[in-house]
Structure formats: C-alpha cells, structure tokens
Write a structure and sequence with these properties.
With 456 residues, the protein is an alpha+beta fold. 51% of the residues lie in helices and 7% in strands.
C-alpha cells in the first residue's frame, strides 16, 4: 500500500487528544514563530509586489493578508503569507530533515480556517501538527542531500503538508485526502537553483506550496481525483524526484504516536540554518574572550560539504549584492557576528550588506572543508579566530534553538515582538501581546480567526 493511503488515514483520524503534550506545546510555538516571521516579512522585497498583484486579481474576501490589511481568496492569502513567512529565512527548521516545516502549513491552515469559519484552537493545533509531521517525515525519508537531488525540500514536501492541514480543517475523508495528495503532487516543485542564484523565488517557492495545499484540498472536497500512489508509486514523488533513494520506514514508523513537530528547531538569527552553528561559535568566541574586530587577523570556519555551499563562490559571498545571498552566507554572517556581536533582522538590508567594516571582516573569513563533519542535513561547525593576541577555537554541534539547545516560549515571544517591530505596519504593543497570549492559550480559543485578524 502506498504511503499516501497511510498518511491520509492518519491525517483524517488523529484527534487532539492523541497529541502528546510536547507536540501541542511545540505546535503552538511554531504557529507563533511563523506568524512573527510573516509580519516581519511583510516589509521584505517581494511582499509588496505580490500583495499588489493579488489585490489586482480580486475575488472573494475570505482570508487575511498579514500586514496589508486586506482580505482575499484563501489560496491567495496562503500564497503571500507563506512567502512573507519565509522571506527573512527566519522560520523554523527540522534539522535532520533539512527543511523548514511550518511555513507552508500554517498559512494554508489559517487561510482555509477563515474560509470555513468557526475553527477552534484544538482543531487548528491538530491540523497543523499533522501537516508538519508529514513534511518532516517526507524529509527524513529522503536519502539524498539537497545538493544531490537539486530539489528544495521545504516546498516539495510542503505541498503535501499544507494539503494535509487544509484537508483536515475542511473535514476530508480518507479517499478525498488521498486525492488531495495526488492533486498536490501534480503541482509539486521547488528547485535549488533559486538558492544558488540568490533570487527572490527562493522565498516564494513555499508560497506556491501553501497555495497549492489550499487548492488541492478544495478540489478534492468537490470530487476531483488525483494520483492515488503519489508518494511511492512507480511515478510517485520518491521514484521520480529522488530516483528511488528513500527510506519508506521513515514515512510511517510510529505514525500517530511520534510527532516530528517535537523535533523542530527555532531560529535566533534570520539566516539559513546551516549558518547558525558558525554564528553561535563566532559569537561565543568574541563575547567570552572580548575579541575586538581590529585585533582579528584571520577567521577559519571548518564544516562539512553541505555547509561549504554557503561559502562559495567565495568572492561573491564576501561581497553579497542581494539580500538572499547574504542570508545564505557563512563569510558575511560570521563577519557580522564578529563585528557587531549580534546577528539580527537589521543586518539584512541593502544598506547593511554594504557595511564596510563587516565586508572588511568578511575578507578575513575563510572556509575549510572537513569531510568528517559532513552530515545528511545540518552540520557542526568549528570557528577559529586568530588575533594579534592569540588564537581561539569553538565547536558547535547543536546551535541555539535546536531540541538539544532549545528556545523557551518567552524567547519566542521576544522574537515575535522584534518581528512585529520590523513589519510593514507597526503593531501597537497591546495588540502584539494579545497575539502572543492567544497563541499561548490556543487550545482554549473558540475561533482562530481572531488571531489572524489582529495581524491584518
């Protein structure tokens, strides 16, 4: 039996009471995190352009566009909200699966919840936890790295996770959920070239997936059929997109008992997660040893093969011309950490990436490949800083925000407040605190629409 049938049955039948407390807690954290990154992303390049386009399209006013104060058809809302949620590369990751898990799921879930109306917090948590679980399991099942496959796993698996969440909120039965997965598969895409070329479609690809999740669920609800064996069939996603290199057990092992949302990592810095071990190490060195930028002679960042991608081509990484290139960049982010002793949203603007002091430091940052540090997904990093007064070294295996080094709800609330301060529209503090309060007590909320409306 194709995993599509098993995953569909699980997505339809799991109840809120089946979720372990840690899954509920982490789902609420992830919902707040995506909402925050979307608010901040409303001021990022591509957001205003897409908002203008979907306003031109018009249509039924049923779902909220975060930060722009308008209502649009639910597929359009999912599209722009997911794009904004990923724009700063500040959204969650599942480090072992090598993807962002919630950014496709949460916007689709909110869009379809507003369309349906009357969706309780418990219903919403269940749908989002199930969607995230599918995204993560599909990533864990892949045996190919992003470099080997050429696909970006955030969108390609996000098509399925967003569909599961939207379908669950719509109340699809098992047969229609299988069809919805098949319909989603007909739209599935997301390439690594957008990252390599540092272009805006990198942040838009999850938006395509979230929109498709809404459309797929709505089409299936109306009786449209999709490929039945969309995951493991002869021409299913793993045989077509991954040439059969996958672990089927990862898709269904302990399904309905273990929820991968419990293993999500949250980001303290708005950059590619692959940069974070290096940033953590650099920050620790300069803070603990009071290293001054003018004393630094050389910085060496040792990492595995995947992390090396964030350092090449080296001259381009030392002089990023576009914001996406600065977000996916070891020399620039490590230099920022050494010079400023922090890495924040304000470091990723067209003005900030031209900072002469940071660029001077970036010239001193050199990558070094250490094959034994290579991993399937997130990798450790070793940062060595040579100064006029001596040399210092720090290794980080589990960067801040990982399950082994977690961020508490209070820290994520502070992150949300910072994101709100960087959005297109400034939100009153009382309104910001109300969103945090509602998400924190989401299991007691009668209708989740009040949350997304506060962000419009």
């Amino acid at each position: 039996m194709d995993a599509a049938f098993i995953l569909a049955r699980n997505a339809v039948n799991v109840t809120y009471n089946d979720l372990p407390p840690v899954a509920v807690d982490m789902t609420k954290k992830d919902i707040l995190d995506v909402l925050g990154t979307a608010v901040a992303g409303s001021a990022a390049p591509a957001a205003e352009e897409i908002a203008g386009l979907i306003k031109e399209w018009g249509g039924k006013q049923e779902s909220t566009v975060i930060g722009f104060g308008c209502m649009v058809p639910s597929p359009s809302a999912a599209f722009i909200n997911a794009t904004m949620g990923h724009a700063l590369d500040y959204d969650d990751t599942h480090d072992r699966a090598g993807l962002h898990a919630a950014v496709t799921v949460v916007p689709a879930a909110f869009a379809i919840a507003q369309r349906r109306g009357g969706v309780s917090g418990k219903e919403f948590i269940t749908a989002v936890a199930l969607g995230i679980d599918i995204v993560c399991r599909m990533g864990l099942a892949s045996k190919l790295t992003l470099k080997e496959s050429g696909w970006v796993y955030t969108p390609i698996y996000g098509f399925f996770g967003a569909t599961a969440a939207a379908g669950r909120i719509l109340g699809l039965d098992e047969a229609k959920m299988v069809n919805a997965f098949g319909i989603a598969y007909s739209q599935t895409a997301g390439n690594f070239q957008a990252i390599d070329d540092a272009v805006l479609t990198k942040r838009i690809q999850p938006g395509f997936a979230s929109r498709a999740g809404v459309i797929s669920a709505l089409l299936a609800e109306r009786g449209i059929t999709g490929a039945q064996n969309s995951i493991e069939g002869d021409y299913g996603i793993y045989n077509v997109y991954h040439r059969g290199h996958y672990d089927p057990q990862a898709l269904t092992s302990e399904l309905g008992k273990v929820f991968e949302v419990a293993n999500i990592s949250f980001k303290p810095y708005p950059t590619c997660r692959g940069d974070h071990a290096s940033i953590d190490a650099a920050l620790a060195l300069v803070r603990e040893n009071d290293i001054k930028p003018e004393d630094v002679e050389e910085v060496t960042v040792s990492s595995g093969e995947m992390t090396q991608l964030q350092s090449h081509p080296l001259e381009r990484k030392r002089r990023p011309q576009r914001i996406p290139d600065a977000q996916y960049n070891i020399p620039y982010t490590v230099a920022t950490a050494v010079v400023k002793r922090k890495v924040s949203i304000s470091d990723f603007t067209l003005e900030a990436i031209k900072d002469p002091e940071v660029l001077k430091m970036a010239d001193k940052v050199s990558p070094r490949l250490v094959p034994e540090l290579s991993r399937h997904a997130m990798e450790p990093a070793i940062v060595e800083i040579k100064t006029r007064c001596g040399a210092y070294s720090k290794r980080v295996d589990y960067p801040r925000g990982s399950p082994q080094n977690p961020m508490a709800m209070d820290e994520l609330a502070d992150k949300f407040r910072d994101c709100a301060a960087h959005g297109k529209k400034r939100m009153p503090g009382q309104q910001v605190d109300r969103v945090i309060q509602l998400v924190s007590m989401l299991d007691e909320v009668d209708d989740v629409e009040q949350i997304i409306q506060l962000l419009g």
